[in-house]
Amino acid sequence: MNELIHFNQDAFKTKKAKYEKGLGIVQGVIDAYDKLKFPKLAGSDFYRLFIEPEDLMFDKMTEGKEVSIAGLKLNKKKALEILSVPPQFEDLKKCIEVAKKELLSTCTSEPVSINSNELNKYFELNEKGDAALKAHFINSLEIDFQLFAKSDKAKKILEFVRAVKEKYLELGIDELHGDIRSLVADCFYEPSQYHEDDCMIDPKGITKYNSA
After folding, report:
1. pLDDT-derived band at 74, boundaries 50, 70, 90
2. Can you tell me the distance from the alpha carbon of 19 to that of 188, in angstroms, rounded to the nearest whole number?
3. Based on CB atoms within 10 Å of each CB, which residue in 55, 110, 118, 170 is the most buried?
């Protein structure tokens, strides 16, 4: 059984706060949509709102029916030009464009486009039709800040490190330095000795033990 060594709760909270800020941005778009007085968003509507708002607007206004003139079916973009589109729709589109730019700097590490896959990774609609962070994403985020000993070999190394820490604390030293720190770190990270599956421990974890 894996043994949890350390959970960097402060780093987790800081990271999570970024996505909670993104959640607020997404909710702002949903609030702008709600001003149109259409039925609440459901299912894939959430992602379509960001990626193809014109198509979504057409489907909401026509209840998914086609629009034809003289027997000719109009595409959704052309049909919107002749339909009585609520004036709030332009405000919604502006809100979406602003939100996309803000999400780029909030929820992504690199300037990539916000697409349905990106949104689907972090956000979903709850039962009330409001934006929520996906529970699966939050769980995976927690794991990113957890350190585990995944084998008996790793646990023995952990016991050794804790013993070294205790000896240093007995001497009134609360941080490992120089050669001894390198020695302990090498026990965890020498690729030729320990495979990743045998010992998943961050080398920076040495200082985390001391500050725990």
Report:
1. low
2. 32
3. 118
Query: How far is the C-alpha of 89 from the C-alpha of 57, rounded, in Å?
Result: 8
- pTM value is 0.67
Which of 131, 126, 113, 117 lies closest to 29 in space, CA to CA?
Answer: 131
Q: Which amino acid is at 211?
A: S
- Give the CA distances from residue 20 to residues 32, 34, 125, 129, in Å, rounded to whole numbers and listed in that order: 19, 21, 14, 17
| pLDDT single digits (tens) 85-120 | 888 888 999 999 999 888 887 776 544 456 777 788
Q: What gap in Å lies between CA 105 and CA 100, rounded to an integer?
A: 9
> Which stretches within the chain are classed as H helix?
9-34, 45-51, 53-62, 76-82, 88-107, 116-122, 135-144, 152-170, 178-189, 205-211
Confidence of residue 177 (pLDDT cuts 50, 70, 90): low
Structure tokens at 61: 């206004």
In order of 60, 105, 209, the CA distances from 113 in angstroms are 26, 11, 39
Residues, the chain: 212
Domain ranges of the chain: 6-143, 150-211
